[in-house]
Amino acid sequence: MKQPKNMHEKIIAMETPKDIRDVRYLWIEQLYREHHDISWFYRAKLRPVVIQLSDTQGFWGKWDPLLRTITLSIRLIENHSWDVVVEILKHEMAHQYVSEHLSDMDGTDHGEPFKKACKRLGVASWAARAAGDLPGEQIPCIRQRVVSSEDQRLLDRVEKLLSLSQSTNEHEAFLAMQKSREICAKHNLDKHLRQKNEDSLDSLFLCRKKRKTDPIDAKILSIMNEHFSVRVIHTSIFDAVACTKFQAAELLGRRENILMAEYVYHFLRQQCDSLWSSYKKSTKVHGSRRRSYQLGVLSGFDDKLVSAGSIDKKIIQDAGRKMQDVIALQKVERSSLEDYVEVRYPRLSKKSWGSGRLDQGAFQKGQVEGRRLNLNRPLESRGGFGGFLK
Fold it and tell me: The domain 7-139 is classified under which CATH number: 3.40.1180.10, 3.30.70.920, 3.10.180.10, 3.30.2010.10?
């Protein structure tokens, strides 16, 4: 194990049991990597700093311009996912950026230079607003940031429609699913018409703690990216418990759209497993055909969404708007999302995913089931969209 780098780490070494010390050293090593990668990724040219952990109950993070030290709360890492830890680290790096590039002052305030630095480093809006002090409650998750009563009414209405999509009448179920997509799209349009776009873009990480992204996940994420008003970025994320990195996907978009897409993700994962289990039991087929069958299910569901056609005309009729006006507004919305993606991922590269060899028989059987599939309301919780959202 490496020797402590500074006095604070020596104190940890004296007062903390060895197994906990080992984990905390790994956390610090990962934070140094994050600092280096963030500086490179956003072309920030930040100088190296000392990073340390503290048992403090008084703040999440702190930048000390005199000692050139970033201190993060151990409680932050123990109680929150790593993407939250990284956003707090970026918050403190924004202070560092102000100190080194934007001001002769110490860079510890939250004025305009700090806001400019946050934008340069792609700091999430909730983290940019934070003062760094430790509040009495936990850092709010995206569901707590979803926020406006208007957005909540949308989610409640969609949930009621999804309950109708459990109907045994396939035509009725499909219409309920389509209606839920229409009102989400109309909700986005209405926000643009009223110019209610401030601070509504957000992000959420999905991670199944796998070292590789399997084709089933890749296809589900592709469906979300294509049909549910979010951008999906494939990335990786550190896990502070396992002390290793796993494959992950970050969803970017409006908060209410992210929640809808997250629900779709978990719903499709569950349906793929459930349908495969039933198919395998009824046909006694070999387990090696699972991937082919599940990709068929997702392909059939994707075809169903595509065959439903554009919902723009229906939205236009309901809103009483001209086609060209709606198209212009939708371009603005897509542009806003693309700008947000570029701020978060300025060095984004594209990657294609292969499905490998498929068993055509199992794939086609899966397609048939996928074309019958409808989005259902969460069945595992009375809390609506909280049912699959962990």
Answer: 3.30.2010.10
